[in-house]
Amino acid sequence: MNTNGHGRTGCRPLLKSVSIRVHPWLKWVLLIGLLPVQIASACTIPVFRYALDRWEADPFRLVVPKAWATDRDKVKLLVTLRGNGLANVLVEESGDPALDRAKWLFPHDDAVLSEGGLDADTLAAVLDSPVRRELLQRILQGDSVVWVVATKAGGESEVERIASRLRFLEQVAELPAQNPDDPDSQLGPGPELKLKFSVLPLSLDDAAERHFAAMLAGPRHVDFVKEDIPFAAPVFGRGRVLGAWALEELDDLMIEDTSLFLTGRCSCRVKNENPGWDLLLKVDWETSLASVGVEETIAVKETAAAPSEPKAETSEVVQTVEIAPAAPDPPKQVGLSWLTLGGIGLAVIFALAGWRLWRVR
Predict the structure, then answer these.
(1) Domain check: are 142 and 208 in the same one?
(2) How far apart are CA 66 and CA 325, in angstroms?
(3) Could you write out the three-class secondary structure of 14-83?
């Protein structure tokens, strides 16, 4: 098919040779008419769920000395790491003859997460930890955003401050309305879509979590862990961290803006054009998400098929119940919808265009 500079298919615009002057107010009518079409075609999946469905976790890099290729114990460890297929790690052999230790590097970055010797205990500590397992469980259960709050001993008040703000946001925030007929807004396998924020405490005093704390702080804030600076980081998707902030700088407005951004419409679908970095997690995301979807489907079917149990006769108990005033019914929408107004606007423009053509004959 010929391409002539008018697009991939070579389509020419209709009425190319006809110049039509449109009254300024008609331009506004056209804009209003096309606006709902643009909105309707936008992806309505929230950022956190779009990331869970479509953004694969970037791999960390483990750079090892070339001399380790002849060390049987090291080779055995690396073969196990390469073969497990769970953790997002790539093993690279260094070309630097002076390198005598292993280096763990952040994805798409030369920032060092950790460096030193490598044995079974060290490898296990880098790949997994109790807080990471809890984080995975929450994500697979459908939590929208998990705020991991890293503190020293006595930091419970900061954890509660963030948790209190998130409880408030859960009451006032809403997920974008989903259109099941929109092919661009179809959810992938996984938990039920819901709005849920949670807080996951992390102790900076816990040696088992030092590697995870460094991952969470990210390549630009490794000093948080080195200097024991309390911080918080929101995690979403397949272990994606949007950012990390020292608790002394993290106020309610920052918590609100970050949380609402992650639960709003996904406007930028290219992962690497979004801020953030990934965590190292030991999980097969595709299998785990598919299993969660199957389990929820079975649970729903079993609940629907279960016979209702007869109510046991009980003596009447007097209870005091506070009854809140009923919320007023939402006002009924009166008038024409946006799509109707858009159609009318387009009809007016085409009618005027036809009249203009008829006049110039």
Answers:
(1) yes
(2) 73
(3) CCCCCCCCCCHHHHHHHHHHHHHHHHHHCCCCEHHHHHHHHCCCCCEEEEECHHHHHCHHHHHHHHHHHH
What does DSSP assign to residue 184?
Answer: G
Distance of CA 239 to the CA centre of its chain: 9
**Dihedral angle of Cα 88, 145, 243, 51, to the nearest 10 degrees:** 50
The more confident residue out of 103 and 273 is 103
Q: How many domains does the chain have?
A: 2
Lookup result for tokens 């008419």 = 33
The predicted-structure confidence for 192-229, as pLDDT tens digits, reads as follows 999 999 999 999 999 999 999 999 999 999 889 999 99
Same domain, 112 and 182: no
Report d(CA 318, CA 31) in Å as an integer: 61
305-319: pLDDT as tens digits: 455 555 444 444 333
Residues 74 and 185 in one domain: no
Q: Do 144 and 204 share a domain, yes or no?
A: yes
The alpha carbon of 128 is separated from its chain's Cα centroid by a whole number of angstroms, namely 21
Share the mean pLDDT of the chain: 78
Same domain, 170 and 188: yes
Q: For residue 341, what are the CA distances in angstroms to 38, 351, 353?
A: 14, 15, 18
How many residues appear in the chain? 361
Identify whether residues 157 and 65 lie together within a single domain: no
Convert the pLDDT of each residue in 31-62 to its tens digit: 444 444 444 446 789 999 999 999 999 999 99
pLDDT digits (tens, 9 = 90+) for 127-164: 999 999 999 999 999 999 999 999 999 899 999 999 99
Range of the domain at 120: 58-127
Listed residue (10, 23, 6) closest to 353, CA to CA: 23
Q: For residues 147 and 233, is the Cβ–Cβ distance under 8 A?
A: yes
For the chain, where are the E strands, in sequence order?
A: 60-64, 89-93, 102-105, 112-116, 145-151, 197-203, 231-236, 240-241, 245-246, 277-278
How many helices and strands in the chain, by DSSP H and E? 11, 10
User: How much of the chain exceeds pLDDT 70, in percent?
Assistant: 68
Asked if 190 and 261 sit in the same domain, the reply is yes
Please measure the distance between the N-terminal and C-terminal CA atoms of the chain and give it in whole angstroms. Answer: 35
Question: Quick one: 67 and 107 in the same domain?
Answer: yes
